[in-house]
Structure formats: C-alpha cells, structure tokens
Prior knowledge:
Blueprint: H1 4-8, H2 12-15, H3 21-27, E1 67-71, H4 78-84, H5 86-96, E2 99-102, H6 108-116, E3 122-125, H7 130-137, E4 139-146, E5 154-161, E6 177-179, H8 185-194, E7 208-210, H9 214-223, E8 228-232, H10 233-241, E9 250-259, E10 263-267, H11 272-284, H12 291-295, E11 301-304, H13 307-310, H14 312-320, H15 327-330
Parallel strand pairs: 1-2, 1-3, 6-7
Antiparallel strand pairs: 3-10, 4-10, 4-11, 5-8, 5-9
Amino acid sequence: MKSIKDALKPSAKVLLSAAVFPLMMGLSSYSMAECARGALDKMYCDTDGDLVADLPTDSSKWADPSTLIFAYTPVEDPAVYADIWQPFIDHLKTVIGRDVRFFAVQSNAAQVEAMRSGRLHIAGFSTGPTPFAVNLAGAVPFALMGSDEGKFGYKLQVYTQANSDIRTMADMKGKRIAHTSPTSNSGNLAPRALFPGLGIVPDTDYEVTYSGSHDQSMLGVVAGDYDAAPVASEVVERMAARGLYDPKEVRIVWESASFPTTSYNYAYNLNPDLVKKIKEAFYTFDFRGTALGDEFEGVEKFVPITYQENWSVIREIQKANGVQYTPDQLK
C-alpha cells in the first residue's frame, strides 16, 4: 500500500507549506480568458453567480485521481482525528470505489494551498477560512454536519475561569484575552465585529494575543495564561468530552447566535461523475455507532448546504473586518 507521502507525490511537503503560497499566487496572474468571477482568484470563473468556481468547460482539465486525499481542519491532536475519521474514510472508499487517504494539515494556509495546488481533493475547512478556500483554492462547499432535522451550527462563546472577576463583557477591559488566529470566525473576526456593540473593543480595550487554536485558547484560560477567550462552542464541547479540561473550572461570560460550522468541500475541477459519488458518500453516511458520531455529539448526518446562502453571515462579518481574500490575510 502506498504511503501518504507517495500518494501526495514527492513535492507534497513543499505544496503543503504556506511558504510557497505567494509563489503560487504569482503563477495565477497569467492571462486568462475574461469571465465573471466576483471575489474569486483569476484562476477561476463564476458565470452562474453562485460565488464558487465553475467546473472547467474543457473536460480535459477535469481531475479524476485514482487516490483521493481528504483533510480535516487543523486540530491540536491530528493523530486522534485520523482514527476518528477512519469509519467515514472507509465508507467513502466503498461508495466511490477508489482509495482515499486522510492527511493531517498543520495550518489553514497549508490546507488551502494544498487544494489550490491540486494535492487535496476533499476537505473540511473551518468556518472563517472557508471563504479563503473558496476564493483562493476553488473549494466548493456542499455539506455540514447536522441533525436528522437538518439543524446545524455552533456558537461563539467567551470563557473565563470559574472564579474570575469577569462577569460582563466590559469587565474584560485591560485583561489578557486570547483570540485564536486572524482568519478564524469565532476566534477573531466575529469578536471584532460583535464585541464593540457589547462594550468592549479588541485591540483598544484589551490587547489581542493569538493562541493559534481554539484548543490552546481554552487550555490557556484553564491554566490562567489568559483571563478570557472567545472560542467555538463545538470545539470546547468536544474537548470537555475527551477530558481535556474540567467544565467546572470555567464559566461562560457571553455567547452568540449560531454560525455555520466546518464546511465540507470538493475541488472545483473534479470530474462531475466523481463529485456525484463524493456527495452520495457524504449524504449516506450514518454517524450513529461510529467514532465520528461519538466525537461530534448530536450530529447524525451530513446536511446539504450552499456557500452562497449559508456563508452569507460569515462574509458579512469578514467584510465588516475589512478582510480581503489574499494569502497574506490567510496566514
């Protein structure tokens, strides 16, 4: 059996590195037939106005790999998630009739670059980085994890220590507050858009410290490294379920309405017959009784979605923050 290194080809280590992103972006500026594309990179067209890259009209440019690479959004312990995703990977192999490999990415930038370069075919992108994946890498969101009733989403929650003197959002003035990363929705962009209306302005009322991930923010709050942190509810709930922290040690100061959670995407140029099989595999997967179902409590199936509709609130939050879909802002 080929290793993941073989499946990705010898240049994978380079292509999965965010360091080559500027080079790849430079290559995309070549002259191309003019087409409607909105915010999409010049590599792509959007003639139907659905905000995602169109399938190339020339079928010779369709990708039809014998081995598909799947990557989940960067997490604190990639090895654990490789095991958790295995039941789904096995199901995906059966439905599409091809080999599928799970690959653990180290950053959002590396994950986006991997799909842009053609080395990543199916991916779960975090909420905030999803628009970057769509516009820079030709990712096409088509599913979210949800319930049998079609419900999905997560909340932005602000946590502090159980014995903290932070009782309201305004109490965070002058405190040590951890955000996750610049492109994270719940970990940075939503707080910057929503917190001023709650009486607290990031970078003005408190200095923003980037922890690198929701996991690190939450563990930092528990350890007392940070006085508080905005995090995604779904992440901290899974952390608590795995015993990574004791919920009694922390308390919620504030929480938002629901946002869409991790998007599941295929590369825009995949053979449409293959895309049908990929969608079939996602929509027929039963979470119950699997490690994936145990990890994502309350999730029962993948729910069909569209980027245009379900990411509208996220695009508005990013617009309010002056976000531009460029490699520099993704880092």
